[in-house]
Amino acid sequence: MSTPGTPASTATSGALAVRVGVDQRDVDVAFEVAPGETVAILGPNGAGKSTTLEVISGLLRPDSGHVVLDGRVLTGPRAWVAPHTRRIALLAQDPLLFPHLSVLDNVAFGPRSTGSGRRDARAIAGRWLGAVDAVDLAERRPAELSGGQAQRVAVARALAAEPRVLLLDEPMAALDIAVAPALRQLLRDVLVDQTTVLVTHHVLDALLLADRVVVIEDGRVVEDGPTGVVLSRPRSAFAARFAGLNLIAGTATGTTTATGVRRPDGTVVHGVPADPAPRPDAPAVAVFRPSAVAVHRVAPGGSPRNALPVTITELEPLGDLVRVRSHDLAADVTPAAVADLRLAPGLPVTFVVKASEVDVFAS
């Protein structure tokens, strides 16, 4: 069902199966996208996210693997479908509008390329410009548009072609912080029932747009699951940082009622076991919020607390708070605490968190 005001697509939003093997970039990634589902691909720079989109769109031939859409092999050992005939649209940071065409004709380009006549294509373009609230821009040239306006037009152009799959490669990364929320809401409206793969570095994009999250690190999938689950119970270091959480990996220790995570150095971080509790000696992670962490110059006593020696690497302002970062952990404290403790990069301190604030999951 289309959102009110959004043109109904006659294209079939299809099931997508992807396996990407690119030897030179050390990428070996596999995942599936259900019809109408939006999947966000997360990961650090160089993890293989853009490589994956390039293979899906047909811009890059992999050394191995496949791309299958609605049962049709687009990329495979004995198959190759040209990018322009895949019914897959790619929208990146740069709108890449044709500078010599009006906005209306830019959006009409997609329908024209799939066989619609000029009048029908312009009618389709007009409907999509209405869907993205850009009808008043129809006669302008791209050089006359702001960044936010140009990206709205690019969304309309991509969807006017009725793609079976829409690929979004950080479409809001180049936008002003005041413009991005409006485009995010627009995408939330128009992506209903549209099979979509989204690459993003912004947690709000994943939370508001994605049904599922795939996390890629070092060219491999390390997490795959519903957005809410992955971002509230991360099992990889990147997903934890992305969600603004601390994560400590190791092996489970304890019982079903009192457990912890034994770090490689032998220290144990105590916490509350998830349901089901991780098995003793099995891989596990301890997850806790930076706001649950207190910073001490001298480690306090008390068995209910975890004391973690760290060295401060960065102080990051966060509105009314300051995020104190170490190499792999963070604590949120007040500016007054920063001043009282004389916190600064390079200073050794102790992060302290109550066991009751730590969740322990199997990894």
From TrEMBL:
<keyword id="KW-0997">Cell inner membrane</keyword>
<feature type="domain" description="ABC transporter">
    <location>
        <begin position="11"/>
        <end position="243"/>
    </location>
</feature>
<keyword id="KW-0500">Molybdenum</keyword>
<keyword id="KW-0472">Membrane</keyword>
<dbReference type="InterPro" id="IPR017871">
    <property type="entry name" value="ABC_transporter-like_CS"/>
</dbReference>
<keyword id="KW-0547">Nucleotide-binding</keyword>
<dbReference type="Pfam" id="PF03459">
    <property type="entry name" value="TOBE"/>
</dbReference>
<dbReference type="InterPro" id="IPR005116">
    <property type="entry name" value="Transp-assoc_OB_typ1"/>
</dbReference>
<keyword id="KW-0813">Transport</keyword>
<keyword id="KW-1278">Translocase</keyword>
<dbReference type="Pfam" id="PF00005">
    <property type="entry name" value="ABC_tran"/>
</dbReference>
<protein>
    <submittedName>
        <fullName>ABC transporter ATP-binding protein</fullName>
    </submittedName>
</protein>
<feature type="domain" description="Mop">
    <location>
        <begin position="301"/>
        <end position="362"/>
    </location>
</feature>
<dbReference type="GO" id="GO:0005524">
    <property type="term" value="F:ATP binding"/>
</dbReference>
<dbReference type="InterPro" id="IPR008995">
    <property type="entry name" value="Mo/tungstate-bd_C_term_dom"/>
</dbReference>
<dbReference type="InterPro" id="IPR050093">
    <property type="entry name" value="ABC_SmlMolc_Importer"/>
</dbReference>
<dbReference type="GO" id="GO:0016887">
    <property type="term" value="F:ATP hydrolysis activity"/>
</dbReference>
<keyword id="KW-0067">ATP-binding</keyword>
<dbReference type="InterPro" id="IPR003439">
    <property type="entry name" value="ABC_transporter-like_ATP-bd"/>
</dbReference>
<dbReference type="GO" id="GO:0015689">
    <property type="term" value="P:molybdate ion transport"/>
</dbReference>
<dbReference type="InterPro" id="IPR003593">
    <property type="entry name" value="AAA+_ATPase"/>
</dbReference>
<keyword id="KW-1003">Cell membrane</keyword>
<dbReference type="InterPro" id="IPR004606">
    <property type="entry name" value="Mop_domain"/>
</dbReference>
<dbReference type="InterPro" id="IPR027417">
    <property type="entry name" value="P-loop_NTPase"/>
</dbReference>
